[in-house]
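Complex record, three chains
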Amino acid sequence: MRGTVTPRVTGPDRPPTEPENRTMSQSYAAEEGTPAAAPVEVPHGAGDAVLSIRDLEVEFPTQLGVVRALNGVTFDVPRGKVLGIVGESGCGKSVTARAILQIIEKPGRITGGSITLRSVGGETEITGLSPDSARMRELRGREIAMIFQEPMSSLNPVYTIGAQIAEAVLIHQTRNREEAHKRAVEMLRQVGMPHPEAAAASYPHQLSGGMRQRAMIAMALSCNPTVLIADEPTTALDVTTEAQILELIRNVRDRAGMSIMFITHSMGVVAQLCEEVIVMYLGRIVERGSVDDLFYDPKHPYTRALLRSIPRIGRNRKAPLEVIEGSVPDPHTRVAGCPFHPRCPEAIPGRCDTTVPALSTAGPGHTVHCHLYQGDDETGRTEPGEDA
Amino acid sequence: MLIVVARRAVYMIVTLAVVSVLSFAIIAAPPGSALSQKISQLQSQGGEVTEAQIAALKEQYGVDESWFTQYGKWISGFWHGDFGFSFTLNEPVGSLIWSRLGLSLLLSIGALLIAWGLSIPLGVYSATHRRSLPDNVITVIQFVGVAIPEFLFALVVMTLAANYLGADVGGLFSSQYENAPWSWAKFTDLLEHLWIPLVVIAAGSTAWLTRVMRANLLDVLNNQYVQTARAKGVSERKVIWKHAVRNSLHPLVMTFGTTFPVLISGEAIVSIVLNLPTIGPLLVNSLLNKDMYVAGTILLMLSALLVIGNFVADLLLTVIDPRIRVGE
Amino acid sequence: MTTTPPPPVTEPPAPSALADAGNGAATLPQWRLMLRRFLKNRLAVASSVVLVVLYVCAILAPFLSPNPYDQQNVDLKNASPTAVIWSGGPAICSREQQLDTETFTYEYRSDCSKPVPLRFFGKGYEYKLFGLIPTDRHLVTVDKPHTLLIWGADSAGRDVFARSMQGARVSLTIGLLGVAVGTFLGATIGTISGYFRGAVDTLLQRFIELLMSLPTLPLWLALAAILPQDMSVTSRYFLITLILSLVGWASLARQIRGKVMSYAASDYVAAARIAGSSSARIVFRHLIPNASSHIVATAMLAVPATIIAETSLSFLGVGMLPPAVSWGVLLSDAQNVATVQQYPWLLIPAALVVLAVTCFQLIGDGLRDAVDPYG
């Protein structure tokens, strides 16, 4: 996977990923050479999806009006793979992640759709659970774990790292404090933390950003969740640390066969890590497909624009870096028709600004929401009933 | 850690030294001295005041000396517990102050405990049930609570207690226990008298601290680590009390330094209204009578309490927040 | 954050595309946004209205009062509020003072069979409206020899309502004035301290810490007690104002210093400095305008404490002194429970204090939220 795409598209300033902490690692950390997961020919049949999200809608009532953060989002998280979710800030990536765990900040709330989790214990309809119910709490951390963007602020400053990891273990796995502590240290060792005992006894502010993110990952993995949601876990880190963390996440997938939902705004990171990608814009999915589909044959004008805006080594230096015309509209405005049409160079007047494009299939496992591929064009097999 | 404590201790002493000069200067500044007050007092009692008497009084009061010399005499007495002499009450300042200071401290600290004990749960409830009816009620009470001057609240509570509870208000003891030896009955009588000042003194600070607590907690609840805790399956009650409240206590402890003077001020004014033998009424009288050694000593003592209060707050902070503990 | 850096030149989106609701918010000037947020806060707006009414009352005090505020009347010692009845129009009962020979207190007997009608805009005592226009018209009057005492009378038979209105003049201005002086001091010193840092900052901060380690009320008491008892009302007013502001500026200076420090560290100040702006220019063009909204909000939040302070000092007999009239002075008549139980109307000025302070507080809160909605 990695081998196929990275040479073609490199993320901004990305050095080749360095294997790190080889000496410390026993489990997830480093050691390359394990066969990468099978490339993505498999279309996403719902049968093999760990998480199925259908027509998810989330609204935030604010003083200036209701902000619709998600407008009917439908996708599956495939088992044992890394699904990337890409988009600009405010496109609804993080809201989607929080909706799955039902930890959306007030006053935001899920107003429609369903989220289904298929784990060892069977199927669970998450939207049917009350956010503070015992069952929902049981799912959090145990079935679905989450890593947040800011390693600086995502750990509680007044408790030690060890205590915070042990807390999760104590909730889900054991009642024995000593055992939980041991497990915490063990997890820290597994994520390649140097001196895990000392790290467990230290407070968040005593660790560097990268180490804190490792601690977060250790916490997330401590109860062997079925799905790991990573919400821009490397955005706040410098490039070298980012490479190390990405390597760690890759190893987590390879060793534990964990399903990972990886949220990022960086196409470069997607290329390095993911097998399937969803591109979101203004609370809607605009395109979904395998990494190869998206990088070699992007359909949606927004995806194409995103790809063009990545600086590439070896390109004509004098040519200006391409940017997407316009900017993301104010969240309070409702854009009629296709959300991207005000910025789209190929917008069809009279069509794109009136109706929301339905889903079209662009190939096996490759779908797009765009009027360009509907009705009269070659791929235009529309699926009615969606987003109408 | 020890170095920090030592540095703070030195700083405290320097502050107190400056405060002592300042308070003495303030008190010594006004024209019309205790002496002239004393003379007019003696004259009004109907006695002729002879030149010799005046001279003797001048000698005793040390009026002719510069204020700096007076200050020197006053402050050097502190080493052996001699705070000077009250001109109007004809008593050494030391014997006047100690029992009153004790009662003042008892009231202030009691009120502080009440204020904290109430404001933390109230603030937490208010913040976690935002815009609910109880939150709005608490908010309104807070606003009014902060808006009512202490003396007024004291008057109202006293009047209500006198009217509806038939309580014997004002003073420390009912008349029959005034001079009785200590007994259980006398103790309960004391408590019956103390609850009104305690409630009154604590009310304003409770209202204020509830607001602080509510705002802090709302701030903290926006933090990512609260979401982290939720995401690992911690129950909402534990998210609030273990993760959020612990972090929002921080500014509350910092306000310890500012709450304490407010309580002492409140105690002073409430005691005047309720006629309690604390430091407050003594200070007002000594200021009005230019009884400078009494006033100066009280000002200095109160400042000392404050500085110590701040010091305690700093220490508490290091206990609560590991960032400060290790960061220093 | 984004992979797509915002373009330097942007074609505005087609007007048809974007509904214009809320979109205008981004283009309004800063102060208009603040005003809009403030106006959304209903409590704050209502408080502003109430305060305006109170200030108007203070200005029109003699017009509103049927009796001069300093007129003593032995026949009306501690008279209770006059009951207003309806008798073909608003009217009051006539009443007579009687001395209860057993308790030696005055009692008043109302006689509602002979109602005395209220007259609007009738003639009464002479005064100068706004201190300029001589007139004798009053909002409400009654025919002599009756007296309209809607809030009763004090121990010298003076009209509590008239005194409360007159007292508002002192109580409602002394807080504002004290805070204004304190704000000026605090803002100046805070800006200097935060901008120049170094030794100046250290020195000022130590001084502020020192000032803050003195207990407020005792310090106020001590300072107010210095003032000679026989000063003129006006000079005492200004000196008390000064004393109140002397204590309050310290915490304000602290806050301003913090703000200025954060602004001074910002890029645009660095840019201004590189462009060769002088310190004075940076302070006056960049720092003060930026901090001003915070200064106003903080100052507003300091008004309640100052009003309470004046009231408390006057209540204790060291603030404003009779013959001056302020709400605190009026309340000093009600120092003990017995008085309050017998003549509860003497506490009416206290209700005004609470009302005014609550309003100032709500406005201050509203302003702070408007200035810094996320803080």
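Note: Chain A is about 25% helix and 20% strand.
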